[in-house]
Structures are given as structure tokens and as C-alpha cells.
Amino acid sequence: MLFTLLALGLSPILCAAAADKFSVPNVDATFDKSPEPFEIRVDPGFIEETRQRVAHARAPVFMGIESDGPGAEIFNTVQEYRVNEFDWNATEATINQKLEQFTTIVEPVIDNATYPVPLHFVHHHSPRKDAIPLLFIHGWPGSFLEVSHIIDLLYRLSRLQL
């Protein structure tokens, strides 16, 4: 059996129903019944709009209580990085280069589920025929990107002669 790492779950992007398919606002993606190869391509206008919103955000008033959230210094540091240093295009290219991504929908199998579930998933095969399939499913909020660093490690380990 081929080793499979399927990092499977809902895309962190809100999906909207459109006819009998799903579409994702600001992302060139569709969800259909058959799995389709997918590469993240976020609309550049949306990226710039997001950068502008972050640039114009104001640090919250921090009252000295940690449960109120980060203080102005942390907020300003993150804001400065996001506005002036973070490169979404490089991040997008890295994700598309390292991850074999797909989209599909899963039809509901229970009566109280009204709509199909849109899935954005990653699927990698091992070169070993005796490898054990592995399935990773994340919750919300979350993404397979949180554990994407293990895909290469598992792939390299699967190539070792045991």
C-alpha cells in the first residue's frame, strides 16, 4: 500500500455556495465532487486591501490585564512586520511548491446536514509500497499548515531502508 499523508480539512477561508459548486471569495478556487489539483492564488487586490487595513489599524488600549490581549508594543511590532516586511507572494509560492493540494466537496450522509462540505486538502505519496497511510484532520480554527513541516520529514523517513 502506498504511504499517504492526507492533511484533510476545511480551508481557513470562508466558502460560499454558488449553484451546485462552491467558490472562495478572493481566491481562485472551486470545489466540485471530483478532487481537483489546486494552487493558492489569492487576488492581489485583496492582499493589498488587507495590508492597508493592517496599516491603518490602531493599537488597542491596554489596561495591564493580560486577558485583554497584547499590549501596544507587541501590536505595533506585528503591525510593522505585516505592513513592511511580510511577503505574501513568497509565502504563497512556498505553500504551492511544497504541498500537493486539492479541493473537493463531500456530500452529507446524515439527515440534518444541509450542504456539502468543501474540503481543501494535501495528499502526498510515499515511494515505499509497505508504508502505512496517515491521515491528519485539524479542527477549526486551524489548518494543515500548522503541521506542514512534518510532511517532508515523513517523506524523507519513508525513503530510509528499515
Automatic annotation (TrEMBL):
The keyword Transit peptide does not apply. GO terms for molecular function: epoxide hydrolase activity. Keywords: Aromatic hydrocarbons catabolism, Hydrolase, Signal. Pfam families: EHN. InterPro entries: AB_hydrolase_fold, Epoxide_hydro_N. Residues 1-18 form the signal peptide. GO terms for biological process: epoxide metabolic process. Residues 35-147 form the Epoxide hydrolase N-terminal domain. It comes from the Eukaryota. Belongs to the peptidase S33 family. This is Epoxide hydrolase N-terminal domain-containing protein. The lineage of its organism: Eukaryota, Fungi, Dikarya, Ascomycota, Pezizomycotina.
